Amino acid sequence: MSNPETIKSEVEKIIARLDYKNTGQIREAWKNSLDEDSLAHAWPVSFEEGKLTVAVDNPVYLHNMLLRRKEILEKIRGNPGGEAVSEIRFRMGSVG
After folding, report:
1. Which of the chain's ends, N or C, has fewer CB atoms near its CB within 10 Å?
2. 53-57: long-range pairs with CB below 8 Å, 24+
3. Mean pLDDT for the chain overall
4. What is the CATH number of the domain that holds 29?
5. Of 59, 91, 56, 54, residue with least CA distance to 73
6. Residue ranges of the alpha helices (H) in the chain?
7. How many domains does one find in the chain?
8. pLDDT score of 96
9. 55, 43 in Cβ contact below 8 A?
10. What Rg value do the Cα atoms of the chain yield, rounded?
């Protein structure tokens, strides 16, 4: 059987790595950085170790987001909490 202190330590490491405390601020920064049309087709799905992963539901919007990656990252980083984002990854997926 595992030691409860060892389990607690491992869970704390995982939570720190996932950075849950910034997730709400990062989603707000995302909402403040894109227009309504883009927000309808792309939404953050995870944030881990500075990397924001965004699901995009349409190949045309995915291509557009990839072309605008640097601009979007700069806008996000200009919002409270957004400075924690060092990289954005886009992938096809469902939104909302």
Report:
1. N
2. 53/88, 53/89, 53/90, 53/91, 54/30, 54/88, 54/89, 54/90, 54/91, 55/91, 55/92, 55/93, 55/94, 55/95, 56/90, 56/91, 56/92, 56/93, 56/95, 57/92, 57/93, 57/94, 57/95
3. 87
4. 3.30.300.180
5. 54
6. 4-18, 23-33, 36-39, 59-67, 69-77
7. 1
8. 73
9. yes
10. 15
Range of the domain at 35: 4-92
Task: Give the Cα separation of 88 and 8 in Å (integer).
Answer: 30
Long-range contacts of 25-28 (CB under 8 A, 24+ apart): 25/79, 25/80, 25/81, 25/82, 25/84, 26/52, 26/76, 26/81, 26/82, 26/84, 26/85, 28/79, 28/80, 28/81
CA distances from residue 34 to 1, 38, 49, 87 in whole angstroms, order as listed: 49, 6, 23, 16
What pLDDT, on the 0 to 100 scale, is given for residue 93? 95
